[in-house]
Amino acid sequence: MPTLRWLIRDEGVRAADRVPYRLLEEVPELGHGDVDAGNMLVQGDNLEALKALLPYYAGQVRCIYIDPPYNTGSAFEHYDDNLEHSQWLAMMWPRLELLLELLAEDGSIWVSIDDDEAH
User: Fold this and answer.
1) The predicted structure's pLDDT at residue 119
2) Residues 6+ apart with CB under 8 A from 5
3) Of 27, 39, 61, 115, which alpha carbon lies 20 to 30 A from 86's?
4) Percent of residues, the chain, with pLDDT higher than 70
């Protein structure tokens, strides 16, 4: 079976294992709308946030949309979009693995990406 390999693959594959499970803490003054609606905004490191959601939502999410860094080589106000290809893959891999665990059997993942990392 073909395997995706890159320079620091093993580091990226094990990254989610090194992140501890954390509890989500509600901040009522930042909340809005019906608390029983099932919607939430999670602020923090996305790897930690995804791992915190797993115990509650594993296998239940029907639609996931992500807009990862395009890795264009540009610098923006909130992040630097200039990673070496293998670093970008190592960053994306554990997040996609956790998203897959959250995904329902009939769910789908949609990724917004451009030609810089689409291949």
Assistant:
1) 60
2) none
3) 61
4) 91
| pLDDT at 34 exceeding the cut of 70 | yes
Task: Give the 3-state DSSP-derived string for 17-48, with helices as H, strands as E and coil as C.
Answer: HHCCCCCCCCCHHHCCCCCCCCCCCCCCCHHH
User: Which of these ranges, 22-26, 57-61, 93-97, has the smallest mean pLDDT?
Assistant: 22-26
Is this model's pTM higher than 0.85 or not?
A: no
Contact partners, residue 58, CB within 8 Å, separation at least 6:
101, 102
- What radius of gyration, in Å, describes the C-alpha atoms of the chain? 16
Exposed, middle or buried, 2 (CB in 10 Å: 0-12/13-18/19+)?
A: exposed
Helix and strand element counts for the chain (H, E): 4, 4
For residue 106 the two structure tokens come to 């009939």
